[in-house]
Write a structure and sequence with these properties.
Blueprint: E1 10-21, E2 28-39, E3 43-47, H1 54-61, E4 69-74, E5 77-78, H2 84-94, E6 95-99, H3 110-120, H4 127-137, H5 152-164, E7 170-174, H6 182-199, E8 203-206, H7 210-213, E9 218-223, E10 226-232, H8 236-248
Parallel strand pairs: 3-8, 3-9, 6-7, 7-8
Antiparallel strand pairs: 1-2, 1-4, 4-5, 9-10
Helix pairs in contact: 3-5, 5-6
The structure holds adenosine-5'-diphosphate.
Residues 21, 28, 30, 48, 50-56 line the site of adenosine-5'-diphosphate (ADP).
Length: 254
C-alpha cells in the first residue's frame, strides 16, 4: 500500500474532463475540458460563480460521479478503469471526505464516528495516529459525546478527524465551513492547514468564502466548466478582486 512518504508528487489529476447533462437544446456542459493536477501536500481551493462546475469537478475527482469524457487519476490509479469493488476500496482507503452538513452518524459517539471508515474496511486503527489526530483537532474530552451533544464546530472537527484516520492520499472538502460561524470555521480551517503543514496531507476544498480560500496554497477559479485562472498563496483581498472580475465578465449575460 502507498503511504504518504512514497505517494506520487501528484495526488490527483483530471485530464480534459467533460461532463454534459441533458442533450440538444437543454444540454448543459457542467465541465468543458478541465485539465488540472493537485500536487501532494498542497491545500487547494476551488472557487467560481454558482453553476461554474465546482461540485461536478469535485464529484468526478472523488469518484462519486462519472465524467462524460476525459480521465481522472487518484494516487496513480486511473479511476475510469476500476470496477465497482475497486472503486469502493479506493474511496474508502485513499480518499477522505468532509461535507458541509458534517454527515456524522447520530447514534455513534465521536470516537466511533472517527473510527467508522476503518471499521467498515475491516482495518485496525493505528493508536498513535488516532491520538495524534484527536489531539490535533482538540477532541480528547469529547470522544464519548454523540453529535447532538456537540457544537457545529466540534462536529466538523470530528468529521475532519474521520477523514484523516485512513491517512488518505487526498481529502475533498465540500464547503466545510458553510454551516459554521466564523470562529468555528476558523478552527476547522486552522486544523486543515495544520494537517497539510505537519502531516503532508493533500486537501482540495470547494468554497465560496474568500477567507476560507486564503488558508490555501493555491486557489483555482472555474467559470462555465473551465479553469480560467489561479492564484498562489493569495490574500483575501486578491481573491475578492478575482472573484468580482469573474462575476462581471461572464459571457452570455446581456
Ligand atoms: P457549482 O458547484 O459551481 O455551483 P455545479 O457543478 O453544481 O456548479 O453545476 C454545474 C452546471 O451543471 C450547472 O449549470 C448545473 O445546473 C448543472 N448540473 C449539475 N448537476 C446537474 C444534474 N444532475 N442535472 C442537470 N444539470 C446539472
Amino acid at each position: 500500500m502507498t503511504t504518504l512518504q512514497d505517494a506520487p508528487a501528484v495526488a490527483a489529476s483530471a485530464r480534459d474532463l467533460h461532463k454534459t447533462y441533458g442533450s440538444g437544446d437543454s444540454e448543459v456542459r457542467a465541465l468543458d475540458g478541465v485539465t488540472i493536477d493537485f500536487r501532494a501536500g498542497e491545500f487547494t481551493a476551488i472557487m467560481g460563480p454558482s453553476g461554474s462546475g465546482k461540485s461536478t469537478l469535485m464529484h468526478c475527482l472523488a469518484a462519486l460521479d462519472t465524467p462524460t469524457a476525459g480521465g481522472v487519476v487518484v494516487d496513480g490509479v486511473e479511476v475510469g478503469s476500476l470496477g465497482d469493488k475497486a472503486l469502493t476500496k479506493l474511496r474508502r482507503e485513499r480518499i477522505g471526505f468532509v461535507f458541509q452538513a458534517f454527515n456524522l452518524v447520530p447514534t455513534l459517539s465521536a470516537k466511533e464516528n472517527i473510527l467508522l471508515p476503518l471499521d467498515l474496511a475491516g482495518r485496525k486503527p493505528d493508536p498513535a495516529w488516532f491520538d495524534t489526530v484527536v489531539d490535533t483537532v482538540g477532541l480528547r474530552d469529547r470522544l464519548g459525546h454523540r453529535p447532538s451533544e456537540m457544537s457545529g464546530g466540534q462536529q466538523q472537527r470530528v468529521a475532519c478527524a474521520r477523514a484523516l484516520m485512513s491517512q488518505p492520499s487526498i481529502v475533498f472538502a465540500d464547503e466545510p465551513t458553510g454551516n459554521l460561524d466564523s470562529t468555528s470555521g476558523a478552527e476547522v480551517l486552522r486544523f486543515l492547514r495544520r494537517s497539510v503543514d505537519e502531516f503532508g496531507q493533500t486537501i482540495v476544498m470547494v468554497t465560496h468564502d474568500p477567507v476560507a480560500a486564503s488558508y490555501c496554497d493555491r486557489v483555482v477559479f472555474l467559470r462555465d466548466g473551465r479553469v480560467v485562472d489561479e492564484l498562489s498563496r493569495p490574500s483575501r483581498e486578491q481573491i475578492l478582486e478575482r472573484m468580482a472580475s469573474l462575476q462581471t465578465v461572464s459571457p452570455g449575460v446581456a
